[in-house]
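Hey L., structure's done. Input below.
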Amino acid sequence: MVEQLPIIDFSPFLDPGNEPETKLSTALEIDRACRESGFFYLTHHGVPTEFTDAMLKNATTFFEKASPEAKDEILIKPAGDGIGDDARGFQRIDGGVKGAHEAVDFYRPVENYGPPYETGMGVNQWPTTPTNFRSISEMYTDKMLSLGTAVVRAMALALGVDESALTSRIDQSFWNLRIIAYEGSMAQGKVAGIGAHTDFGILTFLLTDSEKGSLQVLSKGGEWIPADPIEGCFLCNIGDMLSRWTSGIYKSTEHRVIHTSTKRRISVPFFFEPNLDAYISPVLHAAIPDKSTGEGVLYKDMFVKATKYPIVI
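Output:
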């Protein structure tokens, strides 16, 4: 029997009128998923359909209608090269057998003094096709930041740690909004997808179109299982920084995309990250003394390293 990823109704935790016991029950469902699979579907999450639909529509419009020249105008450039910062903008990835895709990345705006810019410290390069791309994306980002904070609060509740130990390190989240297009395999003449990897930050909230059979998650038994979209749900997964926060109790799980459909697949992951200056160190050493506390890391240092020397192409 194929392992199934859990589906969690988040509305009991979000409802301010619910009793603490009800909120704890939902928090413990998330806690269980984080410990066992590192992936879960989140339904009744509070992000209106009008925003998720608009994001998917705009991402589709960009990849379908923006000219090659328009895409090249917002290409990611190396830090020090004009407005380049290694991170913000458009890229085409040809990963060979690991898969190919196109993507555009946007990050939290930062106070900067360039150009030139250091890694990640530049300005977002917003597409002009469609014309409302930026406004919709910024409204969507606000909704996702609220959701990310709420999920982290639920985790703190389930773990029995002071909520502020986590929320104080995400209140200026260095978020990353990405739009991705995986072209139909036959149309492209090569494998479309992305190689096996774990995500880097705290939490990923994945929004996709209805194309199935592409995203796969590595199960506890070592088998690749499908993680197809479910209408009205975000697919959520744990990142490496959250795994470090919890001394490995929460699991950042490998996943990959092998897109074999002849149709284009649109994916919009929102990476909910720590504050850029956050110090990421285990918070569970007091609650679970038999777990190694490990060493802390400055998130900015890890971000720069991951951006300049990515593991996954």
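The chain has nine helices and 14 strands. Residues 286-293 have pLDDT under 50 and may be disordered.

-- N.
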